[in-house]
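Need a sequence for this fold. Nothing fancy.
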């Protein structure tokens, strides 16, 4: 059974001093362009190496954190740490996990967006 993704909306809103309009703006920015694509990540690793790939993941991680998407934030942090060689791990496996969480997070954020 697939786990549901919980968005920590109240926590995210508190981090934005309760500014719902700012949250809506960040949410719109999230959907303006795809935040994560494992094919792009794989190409970055192949072409530019792990540092460029880590930067790509870092950008998405920050946006996920600002929106209260903690599960995705944590997965992206793990992937970034592996890419920066701060920790060891299976890049392909963590990339798959991050991709799955990204897709589920998009659905959860879209539901919030619809209700705001």
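Here you go.
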């Amino acid at each position: 059974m697939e786990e549901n993704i919980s968005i920590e909306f109240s926590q995210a809103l508190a981090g934005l001093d309760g500014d719902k309009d700012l949250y809506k703006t960040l949410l719109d920015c999230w959907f303006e362009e795809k935040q994560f694509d494992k094919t792009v990540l794989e190409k970055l690793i192949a072409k530019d190496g792990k540092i460029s790939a880590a930067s790509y993941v870092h950008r998405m991680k920050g946006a996920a954190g600002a929106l209260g998407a903690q599960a995705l934030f944590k997965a992206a942090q793990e992937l970034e740490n592996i890419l920066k060689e701060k920790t060891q791990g299976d890049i392909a496996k963590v990339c798959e996990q991050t991709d799955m969480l990204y897709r589920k997070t998009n659905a959860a954020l879209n539901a919030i967006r619809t209700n705001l």
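For context: The mean pLDDT is 94.
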